[in-house]
């Protein structure tokens, strides 16, 4: 699939893959910690890390072996993951909603329903691409529909964030920290989505995540994804799980009720 692959030469794009292995290995460990400590974000961060680790591993494999299987692994793994970031940010907003009710439940259900449509389109697109003999990396009607749905879900998430941001004065300190993290991540994620949109709209291979320009991929894909995972992981690490928070509140409540029963004289 790549004229220079399989020649044993370590290139710029391979260096990016090594950096991905380092960064997303740390992200995977963070996800395991979040799961163990019953914190939010473990699933989205963990699965995203797995996709990027597998994709980077396949990319490094093409240094010595130019096989369709390895390139298919890179293609599939690079095609997945952005939705997980969107749902990670929605999960952080939903945590705020569990503490301070701001939005109705359907606000978080609608993106999930739309996602199932996107999954169906992605499966159809993968089957269609496998049947093509040439231009497998070029945009198809399926990929265009898929990125359109992805953009709609992003806009839904961004609108939900604005709704929560406007009410941040009502949040406790922990929830304000959470919404501030989402505020940083929303524009960073926009950079990542614009990268995909440019390729889908123009069909310019410069913007292709598999064979495109390595600098464009680094600046508009890898660095934004790593930044978002780092910001959310640090934020989640600093906030207790809702179970711990409710336990502390219950303890404080019992303590305050008990203090009322202590005689003053």
Automatic annotation (TrEMBL):
The chain crosses the membrane at residues 15-34, 41-63, 69-90, 102-127, 147-166, 178-203, 215-236. InterPro entries: DUF7702. Keywords: Membrane, Transmembrane, Transmembrane helix. Residues 11-235 form the DUF7702 domain. The keyword Transmembrane helix applies. The keyword Cell cycle does not apply. It comes from the Eukaryota. This is DUF7702 domain-containing protein.
């Amino acid at each position: 699939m790549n004229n220079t692959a399989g020649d044993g030469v370590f290139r710029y794009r391979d260096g990016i893959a090594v950096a991905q292995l380092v960064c997303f290995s740390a992200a995977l460990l963070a996800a395991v910690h979040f799961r163990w400590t019953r914190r939010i974000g473990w699933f989205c961060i963990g699965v995203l890390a797995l996709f990027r680790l597998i994709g980077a591993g396949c990319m490094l494999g093409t240094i010595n072996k130019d096989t369709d299987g390895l390139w298919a692994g890179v293609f599939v793994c690079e095609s997945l993951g952005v939705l997980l970031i969107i749902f990670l940010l929605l999960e952080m907003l939903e945590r705020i909603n569990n503490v301070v009710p701001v939005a109705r439940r359907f606000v978080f259900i609608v993106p999930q329903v739309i996602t199932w449509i996107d999954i169906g389109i992605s499966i159809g697109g993968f089957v269609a691409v496998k049947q093509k003999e040439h231009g497998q990396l070029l945009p198809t009607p399926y990929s265009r529909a898929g990125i359109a749905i992805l953009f709609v879900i992003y806009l839904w998430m961004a609108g939900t964030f604005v709704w929560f941001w406007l009410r941040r004065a009502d949040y406790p300190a922990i929830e304000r920290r959470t919404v501030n993290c989402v505020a940083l991540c929303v524009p960073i994620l926009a950079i990542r989505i614009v990268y995909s949109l440019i390729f889908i709209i123009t069909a310019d291979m410069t913007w292709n995540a598999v064979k495109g320009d390595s600098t464009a991929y680094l600046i508009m894909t890898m660095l934004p994804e790593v930044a978002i995972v780092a910001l959310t992981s640090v934020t989640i690490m600093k906030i207790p799980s809702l179970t711990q928070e409710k336990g502390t509140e219950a303890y404080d409540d019992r303590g305050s009720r008990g203090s009322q029963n202590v005689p003053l004289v």
